[in-house]
Amino acid sequence: MANTPYPESYYAASANAVPPRPALQDEVETDVCVIGAGYTGLSSALFLLENGFKVAVLEAAKVGFGASGRNGGQIVNSYSRDIDVIERSVGPKQAQLLGQMAFEGGRIIRERVAKYNIQCDLKDGGVFAALTAKQMGHLESQKRLWERFGHTQLELLDERRIREVVACDQYVGGMLDMSGGHIHPLNLALGEAAAVESLGGIIYEQSPAVRIERGASPVVHTPQGKVRAKFIIVAGNAYLGNLVPELAAKSMPCGTQVITTEPLGDELAKSLLPQDYCVEDCNYLLDYYRLTGDKRLIFGGGVVYGARDPANIEAIIRPKMLKAFPQLKDVKIDYAWTGNFLLTLSRLPQVGRLGDNIYYSQGCSGHGVTYTHLAGKVLAEALRGQAERFDAFADLPHYPFPGGQLLRTPFAALGAWYYGLRDKFGY
């Protein structure tokens, strides 16, 4: 069977050394079979193992191969649609539960890093940067909203204060969230995988799930083996393909592009982001950036609907970087890559159960780093019979894309064009 390596990226090039993991070659029995060794799968596995379950994880390529090992590395609280939107959609009781959970993912990441001594360049502090007075007004109301749900580590930044945290003259203000922050995302995944194995969990790499035999005792088939389990957790997200057709119809893989500069040196790096916070702007089609542990700038943005790989990522993203930081015009780009995340029509995650024993979470819609860690805990709770928090997510409406899989890409691209115009003209 072909060995799928990590795609070229700064993260793959600077990943911590880990032992190779075997492909599944025979038949195994376990309590829970987790499909996908990204954050959702690893978080689920870790919580289950800590609660006495026997767990096997199937990964089609390598741990953190998908969005978990290629994202911008930012710990951003809440969901891709905020709690006020959820409240209007589902009512106050369910929104209260989801609101209480909106800041839990970041806490779980920090607990994991501390408990299992994961080396992933964890830094505290994330900035939402406003380009217009309207966006600043939105941040003011967002601060009030988040504080209503007990989240207090927030500070509004006026034009002078934001200049102190980011050397970019585009912004009129912003909001600093000290419970936000950033990490080396692939090293976080690799550290969590090592934690899974330290508790007796088994991870099989190069072992894609090709078929699920549903029923009272479900079986997951791989090209060379199979796993019999009491429960299955489907955690493949944008890399699931058509393994579970009813999930594929309600979601769409999208690509985002990231570039990484050569090392900038301490002085230039500190001049750009003096406190080493990560930053994302408030546009609908947003840009995001941060410094790495070795003082490079990672800069990402743009969305490619339908998850095609654009021919020249640097040509798409470098102009955005230079608009923010013209002082980097002579700096070389060492890495450029794309990775897929899974978009849902509502921009809210899709959580649920198929039959009695197949659980799933998917569709973080660009807010995956924190949400996936929470999802793992919520899925593990559901398997232990504590379903209240699981049900709060499962009751969110799941909409199929209009026109099905055939029209979902042009439909979403049209929406992006519209929102791109709104960003451009400051609506």
UniProtKB/TrEMBL annotation:
Residues 31-381 form the FAD dependent oxidoreductase domain. InterPro entries: FAD-dep_OxRdtase, FAD/NAD-bd_sf. Its EC number is 1.4.3.-. GO terms for cellular component: cytoplasm. SUPFAM superfamilies: FAD/NAD(P)-binding domain. It comes from the Bacteria. GO terms for molecular function: oxidoreductase activity. PANTHER family: GAMMA-GLUTAMYLPUTRESCINE OXIDOREDUCTASE, SARCOSINE DEHYDROGENASE-RELATED. This is Gamma-glutamylputrescine oxidoreductase. It comes from Pseudomonas fluorescens. The gene is puuB_8.
